[in-house]
Specification:
The complex is a heterodimer of chains A (193) and B (558).
Chain A lengths: L9 H5 L8 H10 L21 H14 L13 H11 L3 H22 L8 H12 L15 H14 L2 H6 L20
Chain B lengths: L3 E7 L3 H12 L4 E4 L7 H4 L17 H7 L57 H4 L1 H5 L9 H15 L1 E2 L13 E2 L6 H14 L6 E2 L33 H11 L3 E4 L2 E9 L2 E9 L5 E11 L3 H9 L25 E9 L16 E3 L16 E9 L13 H8 L4 E9 L8 E9 L5 E6 L4 H20 L3 E7 L37 E3 L14 H20 L4
Parallel strand pairs in B: 1-2, 1-9, 2-6, 3-4, 9-17
Antiparallel strand pairs in B: 5-11, 7-8, 8-9, 10-13, 10-16, 11-12, 12-13, 14-15
Helix pairs in contact in B: 1-8, 1-12, 6-12
Classes of the chains: A mainly alpha (193), B alpha/beta (558).
Chain lengths: 193, 558
Amino acid sequence: MNRKAALRTLATAAALPWMAPDELAALFDARRSLARPEVGLSSRAPGVRVALTDHELEIVGLVADLILPRSDTPSATDLGVPAFVDLIVGEWMDDEDASEFRAGLASLDDTARARSGAPFAAAPEENRLAIVRTLDEGLPEVGSDAPVPDGFYPTLKRLVVTGYFTTAQGASQTGYRITPGMYAGCVAPGDRP
Amino acid sequence: MRNEYDAIVIGSGITGGWAAKELTEAGLETLVLEAGPDIIPSRDYTEHVPVWDMRFRGLGDRKRLAERQAVQRECYACDELGSAFFVDDVDNPYTTPEDAPFLFLRGRQVGGRSIMWARQVYRLSDLDFEANARDGVGIDWPIRYADVEPWYDHVERFIGVSGEALGLPHLPDSRFLPPMQMTCAEDHVRRGIARAYGNERVLTIGRCAVLTQDHNGRQACHFCGPCERGCRTGSYFSSLSSTLPAARATGRMTLRPNSVVHRLDHRNDRVSSVHVIDRETGEDMEFTGRVVFLAASTLESTRILLNSTSADFPDGLANSSGALGHYLMDHTMGHGAAGDVPGYEDRANQVRRINGIYLPRFRNVHDAHPDFLRGFAYQGGGSRSGWGRGTSTRGMGADFKASLADPGPWRMSLYGFGECLPDRENRIELDPDVVDAWGIPAMKITCRWGDNERAMFGDMADSAAEMLEAAGVRNVEVFHEDNPPGKTIHEMGTARMGRDANTSVLNGFNQAHDLPNLFVVDGSCMVSSANQNPSLTYMALTARACAYAVDQLNRLEL
């Protein structure tokens, strides 16, 4: 029998069988996405800037707010997403992945300069939007079979969306409750406990 | 602290807790020795900690996990907070052959893995107990369903199991509390499978040791989600929520955490003393009991016996058969199918049910499959994706952000769990070159999937796809995960029971053939693996063994 076989990453493989398309699995997926053997513990104190320069943080904030801008709900920078990205780059990624990530941020400057003569933060807004949109279109549509690519932009997107919806404010937009009280299997979304 | 007890129980996990309860309730002064630290729910349980209060927002302290828990992190439950319940791999090493990986995933604390387990509970039937005899594989179980049935009843009455009665002879019903709800997608697929296959195949809600109503003084579940991080309402079964409190209430239990049992001594055919190293101080101590129950978990119990050599037992205590350490099994998992469920756009499921669906075995029940013996069942589920889909898909801007606040498309998956035949070559032994942090010889684990296991992989996935398509699921794809033995965390065998003392370690009452006052009650006793999640059977066998031991003591046979 000729069946299309889905490419299963180690990540989705490792969650409980009923957890598949869910934010818990997405967190697990993100956790496993940069699996490489490494050693060494970080001893940096929490809350302190750990890795990214002001310039890099500015780029992260601008990209993050293009993905999740302020609307009737807060933007990514409103919810502190750049600080989360900084923490992950500094204390979670291994050195090789962190270098690759920062090289990706620098490449946004290169692309912006090539198009407008200015680095990313100083380039016109429509240039910044076009650059990020091109990168974003490299990701598959929801429900597609295509595998998710690796690399700088997919990593940044994953961190931005995760960093947003794992805040109290972001989670509240999804109707998240710590103790729902009961389980409803098939109701209108607004009626979920 | 006194050194002599009526009974000593080694281990406080899912079976150790049951031994503690049954023996103390029968009137025995019982010492429970747990290798790991005590767990205080109000201090140690973290199920209500919101993700925004976690340092890495749930991604985990990856560097620390890589350094200290490089193996344990392979378990979904060993996450940012749950890692506290898993062992330190550096302190607790084991080895495997280079070409035969085995994931030994476990905790070491009061409650053991009963804190983190997935809570799925299914009875075995005579289809399983008769399988070895019928197929000519391994040795015959010395018991049948009729022997265990009253003990399944006994355990379920106490712990509370929710689920749906199906009347299937090969998956006997438990004494059920009300079943949890299915989602729209699951119900849709359930009806489609019933239409296409009639009574031959049935999709049901998972049978789980989670309370859907208050039971025995414990509160019904409030569906917060991460059971594996603890449950201060005691709504799922764990030693800590249920059996240990019952034992404590008798006033006859002494629980000693931080007690690493490394050796059992014997005098003639009686275990005479239990040797302990204090986990924190390194102090040596000895305890004696009229009867000793090993419930340290499948591999750790056998490891203690292998480390307890003597002139009479050069190959390990209770091992005159030579079977100790051999016939290790685990369930296969990770072959199945998934697809998109059409419709129900105006409906959604609540995200965290802490249970999935179950599709019982249908292979080699009424028919004989040409390619393999035994069979497999499915877990899985159907739900709408959450904001997580936005981490890896296309989309930017205000509309994209708003869309992630709403549920995504419905997906349904069936995920197979397969039986594993007993094979003498699948085994544990002591590694002469490796010791743990307390100087105790570590295990070398050798376990490989055999031909019968592999022969099921294709059918597990193809049958899942066929059923999903028959139920109207679209874009169905099969998947095959390459999971090594151990990943399913249903490791069992290595001290199997049997009628013949030449080919088994234990008799039908979990009693060592060689030493009548030694009982081994965890998964090590299993003779075949079936495909069902095994913990309910471990608990039932433990309760049964305790009743037998008490009876033997009362008759002064011990």
